[in-house]
Amino acid sequence: MKFRRILPPQFKSREEFNIFLKAMTTSQIGAWVDFTVSLILFQFTPLGEVYSKAIGTTSGGFTNCTLNYRWTFKGNDVKKRMVFVKYVLVWIGSLCLNTYGTAITYHLFSSWQWLIDMGFKSAGFFMAAQLIVSGVVSIVWNITLQRYFVFQDVDIKGFLQSPYKRK
User: Which strand (E) or helix (H) includes residue 149?
Assistant: First the structure.
């Protein structure tokens, strides 16, 4: 059983593993909302990749927060206002990582001639960039911070105060 000691926390108990699976499910649902809105805006409006992705990420984030609050982490014992404040803090980081990560990856992919020669189009580069970036951000940033910060009864009032008022 030494192997169990090196596992990440979400795999050490059945309960934690179930929470992780639920978080992955809600993440996927949020990602599909995000991708659908982003791609429709990118393909059919003049907004471009940055604004399309930002609006899509906002839609997916709202969906994900609602599902996680009610089903995954059952944050009913945490005040909704505190969940909202903490979720927004995490979400801003996620928005920046997803938006600029997608834009950078999109431009990287669109400059690779061998992908163009294979027949990739602008929307294909955009979707591939979204899939890669959102997968990494979802697991490394979103799920971790939602599990251990957003939906937990963590007092952030002291954290948000000016350092001069804490004393």
Answer: none
